[in-house]
Each structure stands twice: as structure tokens, then as C-alpha cells.
Amino acid sequence: MLKLNRNKVVIIILMIAFTVGSIAFIAPEADHPPFKNLKVYPKDIKYDSLDHLMDYYKVALNVKCRYCHAGSEANPKKLDMASDANPIKEITRKMILMTNEMNEKYMHTINHPTTDSTAVQIVTCNTCHRGKVKPEDVVLK
Fold first, then answer.
1. What is the number of structural domains in the chain?
2. Is residue 138 assigned to a domain?
3. Cα gap 58→106, rounded to integer Å
4. How far apart are CA 65 and CA 68, in angstroms?
5. Nearest to 108 by CA among 119, 95, 96
6. Residue 134 lies in a domain
7. Which pLDDT tens digits describe the chain residue by residue (141 residues)?
8. In-domain check, residue 51
9. Residue 66 burial (CB < 10 Å; 0-12/13-18/19+)?
10. What predicted TM-score, i.e. pTM, was given to this entire model?
11. Does 118 fall in a domain?
């Protein structure tokens, strides 16, 4: 039984890594300057990995980059990706941390009787948002 739980934990970790874009913990590519002001992801995340994550968030909430990122003070038509001027960015960080915590702490403990006992459920942004900025309210009957 202990081995099965260890296998589930390994599967969860692999699925989380795959879901969030296979984050790589090596230096960013030479043609991209180091990232500034990363608070949730590793400071040395690869550009392609972070770009993949940002694309995923845009799809999951059906938004554009400007939804979270503030305009540059020097040129408002461009985005200042490091800026925290847009309060939505901090909300997004909290949502990412919440989702990660739910997957790490709770999802591996759920065994639904109608599914394969080795299957692991994970929570993603799309679990609740489903292409909308604000998840729809659920009415329980």
C-alpha cells in the first residue's frame, strides 16, 4: 500500500510539472535577459517555459497579457512585465500558489470509486475558470 501511495505522489508531481509547462530549472536562454520580479516561479526559469505558462493562463481565463501586466511608464503601448502596478497580477500569483497547494496537499488523497484507482485528479486554472475571468457561480440543489 505504501508503494502505491508513493507512485501516486510521483504521478502527481509529474502531472503538475507537465501541466504548468514543464518548468526547467536552468538559466534563461542567452537571447533573453534575466527575468525581474518573479515571486512564484524560479528566478532561472527558461523563457520558453514561462512563455508557455503565460499562454496557458491567457487561454484558461480568455484574456490578453494586459489583463495582468501593466503598461510601461516610458511607453504605455508596451507592457512592463516586471511591474506590480496592476493589482490583478498579485491575485494571479495567489491563485497559482493556491492551485499548487491543492494539488500537492489534497488531490492525491482522492480516490473516486468510478475511476481507475491509479488515476490522479489535478486542479488547474481551467478547472474553475473554464475560459472566463470570473468563474461561474455554482448553485447546489
1. 1
2. no
3. 26
4. 6
5. 119
6. no
7. 445 566 666 666 656 666 655 444 444 455 778 899 999 999 999 999 999 999 999 999 999 999 999 999 999 889 999 999 999 999 999 999 999 999 888 887 776 666 666 666 789 999 999 999 999 888 888
8. yes
9. exposed
10. 0.69
11. yes
